[in-house]
């Protein structure tokens, strides 16, 4: 097995505006080819973190290394244009008066004409815009505009790609296909990428790792599945919509097949897909049921507790059932 190469190392970044802390103790490390999602609500600091790594805003304190090349350490700072990274803005920031090819080649003015055209052609081919180089941005669809922005960001073959809400302007009907296409592109060329979103669905569909942010801090970082299945706090559990959060003292012991991961925790997380019918289980009543395509989502009443569970069983509203929670309940604070 080949040894992984550390691509990005960020240590204790701090950013303040008018003495108000916006980013605090922001640290992460990525290997080459990793795709990380900075996930959180508006105002949590995720876009600020992206701009800090790009050198677009003033960083009060911290350290940034890209493939062991120092970009930022306290007073020392490499300017944005020399950081060897690409940045895709939320609105793509394409120049409306330039063609697709001219947009892509904007940063290649240091090359001679032949080399510049070769780079542009390669970038157009990379994002499947080979035949659209002479069009203007307003003549492109949203997905094509995004591809143009990607090509422009990658034409200089950056070591790190940063993307600010790259899928927010894409029609939902084409978003999934475009995300899959983009992910394959990054993986094929082993490009390290960080993108920002408030959508956990985008995080699951595109990222290898997810960092959940709140009030300028990373609350939890890890593989996307691990963060969803094992949230380390009530905030992460709620933001990820990871399941039912219940005061530990209110959970009927008969409902749990297994002891909780932390019986001393103030709250327990019960996954919606962890419930199963059980002849001698805990009585429950179905108070609502929604068909979700491949499964049903049921709202049930267990004593005075309102819970949600998912399975492939259709229940009539008002039906009395007996259930048991088959997974390990996760203790969270």
TrEMBL record:
Pfam families per UniProt: ABC_tran
Record Gene3D superfamilies: P-loop containing nucleotide triphosphate hydrolases (3.40.50.300)
GO biological process, one term: quaternary ammonium group transport
Tagged with keyword Membrane: yes
PROSITE patterns assigned: ABC_TRANSPORTER_2
InterPro entries listed in its UniProt record: AAA+_ATPase (IPR003593), ABC_SmlMolc_Importer (IPR050093), ABC_transporter-like_ATP-bd (IPR003439), ABC_transpr_FbpC (IPR015853), P-loop_NTPase (IPR027417)
GO molecular function, a single term: ATP binding
GO CC terms, sorted: membrane
SMART domains reported in the protein's UniProt record: AAA
The UniProt record lists the keyword Nucleotide-binding: yes
Domain ABC transporter span(s) in chain numbering: 8-240
Protein name per UniProt: Iron(III) ABC transporter, ATP-binding protein
């Amino acid at each position: 097995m080949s040894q992984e190469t550390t691509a990005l190392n960020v240590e204790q970044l701090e950013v303040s505006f008018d003495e108000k802390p916006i980013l605090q103790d922001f640290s992460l490390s990525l290997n080459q080819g990793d795709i990380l999602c900075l996930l959180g609500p508006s105002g949590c600091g995720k876009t600020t973190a992206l701009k800090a790594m790009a050198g677009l805003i003033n960083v009060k304190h911290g350290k940034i290394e890209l493939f062991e090349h120092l970009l930022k350490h306290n007073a020392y700072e490499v300017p944005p244009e020399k950081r060897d990274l690409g940045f895709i803005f939320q609105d793509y920031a394409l120049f409306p008066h330039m063609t697709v090819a001219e947009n892509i080649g904007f940063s290649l003015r240091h090359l001679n004409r032949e080399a510049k055209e070769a780079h542009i052609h390669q970038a157009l081919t990379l994002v499947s815009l080979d035949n659209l180089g002479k069009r203007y941005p307003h003549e492109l669809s949203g997905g094509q505009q995004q591809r143009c922005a990607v090509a422009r960001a990658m034409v200089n073959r950056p070591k790190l790609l940063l993307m600010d809400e790259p899928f927010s302007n894409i029609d939902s009907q084409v978003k999934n296909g475009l995300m899959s296409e983009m992910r394959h592109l990054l993986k094929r060329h082993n490009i390290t990428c960080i993108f920002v979103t408030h959508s956990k669905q985008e995080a699951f569909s595109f990222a290898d790792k997810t960092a959940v942010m709140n009030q300028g801090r990373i609350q939890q970082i890890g593989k996307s599945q691990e963060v969803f299945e094992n949230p380390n706090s009530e905030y992460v559990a709620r933001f990820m919509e990871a399941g039912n959060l219940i005061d530990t003292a209110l959970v009927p012991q008969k409902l749990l097949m297994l002891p909780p991961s932390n019986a001393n925790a103030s709250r327990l997380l019960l996954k919606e897909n962890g419930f199963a019918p059980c002849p001698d289980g805990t009585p429950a009543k179905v108070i609502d049921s929604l068909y979700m395509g491949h499964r049903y989502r049921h709202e049930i009443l267990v004593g005075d507790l309102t819970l949600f569970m998912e399975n492939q069983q259709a229940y009539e509203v008002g039906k009395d059932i007996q259930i048991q929670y088959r997974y390990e309940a996760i203790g969270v604070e």
